[in-house]
Amino acid sequence: MCDDKYKRCKSFYNLVVKRCLDFLVAVFMLILLSPMFLVVALAIVFNTGLPVFYKGKRGGYKDKPFYMYKFRTMFHGQEHKGSVITKENDDRITKVGRFLRKHKLDEYPQLINIIKGEMSFVGPRPETYYYINTFSEEDRKMLLVRPGITDYASLEFNNQEELIGDADPDEYYVKYILPRKNQLRLKYIEELSFSTDFKIFWVTVCTVLGKCVKKSKICDNKVPESVDK
Question: Within its chain, how far is the Cα of 212 from the centroid?
């Protein structure tokens, strides 16, 4: 349940307004971007065949599992082989997949998850149960809100594959990245509001378009005092 520290998860904005905005904007964007969806789908088919989409099981709102949609960026069947986390120059990623990942185009099918009510535009990025099962009770409180396409952690680690480099991806992720991501996910729930969501959404758009500095004030390297452990 939401305690005083994360009381904003029970706010009218989060429970009603945000859900309505998510649904309306997602429907509009899905219609607007439908030509791009078709082009990407055809590129994937011509490059490596079907399927076009990847469905990954993730931990969702109130710990309810759901399948998160992405355009497939790996060779078919390779997502279950090797490490859970991908690294730079991962040989499981297709030629088209590298382009989609670089420009974040593989994430667009999550508009479907938003319309279904499984995700939001802004919220903690959903994790696999491989990692959720290792979370502390405090870390699991990120499941108090709908997971999102972007959040503080997404902005700070927008170059995650480059950070991992040639290191063991799972070991590096668990040791150096996941703890920080969880701090930022909890920070988001503490600060949840329309202004916070708008700010994160806007910086994300700017970052994807290459019009923001790499390190913004919204995603600096300092651990906020409110989420120090």
Answer: 19
